[in-house]
Amino acid sequence: MESTEWDAKEPFTFIFENIKDMERFMIICRDTLNLRIEDPGCLWARVLKGPGIQPDIPEEYDNLRVKMNLFYHEVDLDVQKLKPAELKEGLVCVVFSLALKSWCRAVVESVFQGTVETQAWCLLVDHGDRIIVSADDVRTPLEKFLQLPFRVRRFKLAGIRPMTLQVPISENTAELVPSSTWDSSATKYLHNLLQVSTLVEAVLCETQDGCSAIELYLTINNTKICVNHELVAKKFACFMSEKSSALEGNRNGDCAPVSLAWDIYSSPHQLLEMKGRCPVKAPPPDILLRKERKDDPQTVFTHSEKQKPQMSEEAYMPSQVNPQISKLTCNAGTDTIGRGWRIRVEATDIFTDENYGQIEIHKPQYMKFNTLLHSKQIAQSFEEKQHSPDQIDNNSSVSTPAASSSSCASDSSEEQKVAALSQEPSLEDQLISSRLMQFLNPDPLNPDQESLDAKVVRCNPGHSRVLVHSVLHVEPCSNLTRAPISEKFRKFLLSRKYNGPNIAESYCWPAVARGFDTVLVSNSDDNTLSYIPPLLMLLQTVSVASSLAARTGPIAVILCPGWEKVQTVLELLEDSKATYNLHPTSVLLGVDQEEPTKFKIQRNCHLLVTTPFTMMRLLDAQCFLFLRLCHLVLDEADMLYSQAPEQMSVILKHFQKVVSGEERFRCPRQIIAVGSRWSAGIESLVREYMIYPSIIITVMEEAALYGRVHQRVQLCLDCDKISILLGSLDFHPPKPQKTLIITNSAEETEHVYKAVVNTAVFTLKAHEDVTDQFDFVIDQWRKDIGHGTQVILVTTNDCLKALGIRDASCVVHYGFPSTPKLFGSRLFCLSENFRNLSDMDHAESSSPAAQSVLLLSEQNARHVCGVLRYMRRTAALLPPELLQFALGVQQAKEEQKTDRPLCSSLKSFGFCRDTTVCPDRHMINKSLDHPKHPDSGTIMVLPLCIKSANVYSGRIVSQKDDPYETLAAEMNSHYASERRCAVEVLKGELYAVQEESIYNRVRVTEVPEKGEQLFSSVTACFIDEGRTQEVKSHQLLQLPPQFQDLPGQAVEIILCRAQPVDGEVDWNPKVTRAISQKIKGKLHQARLVMSVGDTVWVDPMVRMTRVPGLKTYINEYNIHAEILSSGFGVSNPQHVDLLKRVFQGDENANTLQHLPDDSTKTISSLDPENEE
């Protein structure tokens, strides 16, 4: 039976009411309910609300539908990997519904083999519909598509079973008998009732095998009826047992069920025309009689002659009807009454409440037919069955059917009824019949089902959003088993619960292992793993020629931008224990000129980790140390070129000279550059020093920089975006052009499409609501176009991956890209027009082949600084208005940081490396930065906590009466006689902690949850020393109020005019450790330069020692000189001047005037707040 769908005239409510005595629960549904009806025994519905029921969220299912359509409609999708290994009953899958024009979740109910292909009969679990699909069109669902529960549930009408007309061929009679399948006319009648109902109520009776039995109640024109009883009254059904009789099964508490008096062929339009004057008749008398019966009958259709109500014969003749009864209208029509038979009937069984009592109860009768029209046993759609008076066959003789259920098969035995039931074909018989029909007729059983001609496209880097330019083919590795790494390193990665390789490593590992010159641009947190595993494998398997055996120096050198990365790389090599016979080591040299000449590399060291500055110093002092060099690795190459461009140039020239010797003809030669950004330095590296490089870029906005996409920024008001958009389009380009206009929503897509299509340019559109048209759109897009022709496609962000466009000539960002990742995914649509540096013959062109137009309105103000930072790297012409606007935005952001602490880099060195991304404050806040100490003069300082080589925490010691010394003495005296532990530890409160013989005041800054731990720790700040550390809770002592009056004595002490060597961000731990050992806990004399809040700047700071026996003091050491003499620190003469400019307010207007460009370290993003 084919299912159909109905729409109510008005929103209605689906209610399940609570029946305590039957322990049933009710569900209340206040929204419009989408119900799909196959027959009264199979109703598909959604439960939206109710006690104990978690309502579904429509937005979640809409998002699921969109995601599935976008995924399974992907042009580059490898469908072979998504086909199930075995197609069997009960399999959860995803299929495409042509009726819904959408991919849907489904369950395979049966599989049958046709003459051409295997087909599956599937149930759409979110729609309650069934379709037949080809086995090749069944897809395996992703795990994320199965997170939401199935949306529809199956219901059936409880306590009743279907009936059908049985027409013996040899007799001229017909009788109603029980059936195993519902008649199509019963389903049609149920449709009509639901369409005109204003309230739908249901009682949940039981649930078996995933199907819930309900009693359905409808309110029509303020009259409530029970559908279960209505179908029995209209002879579509019968009760399954006496316990399901009408009055006993009435769950709403009505004294008797109500039956509608219209005939079963009245259309919904005719029913609605009654407008509240709906004639209602009392329940059929046989229902009342069954209520009174006490003995259980064998069947509800067999009654004794004593129970048969009598009625005069003339009551059945329309011409002899009581004259008090108004003339009734006959509604004639054609419908399927019996299975496989179509008959013509005329129904006149319509009575009003007033006249019902004047008519006697009907006696059993049979319907007589003169003509029977045979039809095929295929379910017909209800839309094809029209009921009108002119369809009545003139040769047909129709009798009025009896209204009493006792008239059903009174002349037939129980065995005949059982035999009739057994003759009803089962589902298996239907499937066998369908297979036979398929064999006789190879056409599809479902004429509306078209085969999905899905193109199987081989997976490529573009599908994974990876740009791979390589003359030599690179086959990615997808798992550790097939990865080109050593077994020891593989075990090491598994021990660290490594779940890679990621997309960058899967392409980089094979290229490095094969000895290719490789460039990788990736934003991975740990780029070290992108090259070390295959590099170790390569070094251990490829032997250096014997001609180099006599020479010294490492075979491979890894250059890192700073000492921290050097330590990270060396620790990884040592922890892996996979460096057999390589003996890796690291070297970090300062500016001391004698140190490089004394340094020696062990002869068996084949792998060296260092910085460009250190290697440059070694080359200047001992150039013969690197004569065996074959592999040069640049870790964070973009930073290497920004921090040490001159050193990188010298090192690369030396490498080129070493590997170009005649004796090195058979030796390997490889350069590996790994970074997070594309830069001009990497470009020169590829052009001048690499041979057949493999360029791998996983960050798409960086790929656009590599591809030399011409960037344009159009400032506009949001209300004028359409006009600016049309003005930026070239409708008569000199070359064939494909333009992609990208919006942020389907509504924007329609809006832009209507505006562009009016320009008479061939325009296409694609968004989430028209995914079924993707194939047509792509076919049109990929067609060849001639000169002066432009094709425009308007689409959304979510559709880009599904469409798989790579050959666009221009991308217009109508909707602003809110994240760098989104911006890069849009630019990747131009990837086939990127320049290819791996192919030097075609790397150069007169003008960029790809361009990007960004529409920037006032609604995107907070992204302006990020946009400007990126656009500066592209060398694009920027509007002066954009620069001025960015300055204002950055100043506004700085004003919002008034509650943040002062930038630590600004305090330590006088400058911040990037004010646009630094979260801290860069201007004076008078309320927070009011000086608490004098800003000039000579003071005695006691450093107690060494944070770095030039930043300490300690106290200013008074030369006369020191209040802290007095406090310390009193605390020692107090706790010597009385020690009370803290009962309750609260955040922000003051306590005391004993360390050896000293009692310190601490303020608790963080109290973690103790849980089930016996002892817990809290984070506490020593307010008289400035250090912060964890303290055991049981060590905290109560601090009496008299010891809390004195403010915290800790002061931040910053030594001026010193900074790390080689442009390092942080001090080398060697320097910090040496300074800490020298000055911690010792009294120093210092001259104040300035003071802000609890911070003082001093210069110089010296240790003075008294000459024994004399009143003379001498300078034991100068801390500034000690830092410089270590070789890892240099002078910073502008430190004080820069601080004064900032603190006097002069720098506020200038610090943002020049936003950082490619010469400094920046984050490649449109907005750091939204960076992914």
From TrEMBL:
<keyword id="KW-0378">Hydrolase</keyword>
<dbReference type="Pfam" id="PF00567">
    <property type="entry name" value="TUDOR"/>
</dbReference>
<feature type="compositionally biased region" description="Polar residues">
    <location>
        <begin position="1161"/>
        <end position="1172"/>
    </location>
</feature>
<keyword id="KW-0677">Repeat</keyword>
<feature type="region of interest" description="Disordered">
    <location>
        <begin position="383"/>
        <end position="424"/>
    </location>
</feature>
<keyword id="KW-0347">Helicase</keyword>
<feature type="compositionally biased region" description="Low complexity">
    <location>
        <begin position="396"/>
        <end position="411"/>
    </location>
</feature>
<feature type="region of interest" description="Disordered">
    <location>
        <begin position="1150"/>
        <end position="1172"/>
    </location>
</feature>
<keyword id="KW-0067">ATP-binding</keyword>
<dbReference type="InterPro" id="IPR002999">
    <property type="entry name" value="Tudor"/>
</dbReference>
<feature type="domain" description="Tudor">
    <location>
        <begin position="56"/>
        <end position="159"/>
    </location>
</feature>
<dbReference type="InterPro" id="IPR027417">
    <property type="entry name" value="P-loop_NTPase"/>
</dbReference>
<dbReference type="InterPro" id="IPR035437">
    <property type="entry name" value="SNase_OB-fold_sf"/>
</dbReference>
<feature type="domain" description="Tudor">
    <location>
        <begin position="941"/>
        <end position="1055"/>
    </location>
</feature>
<keyword id="KW-0547">Nucleotide-binding</keyword>
<protein>
    <recommendedName>
        <fullName>RNA helicase</fullName>
        <ecNumber>3.6.4.13</ecNumber>
    </recommendedName>
</protein>
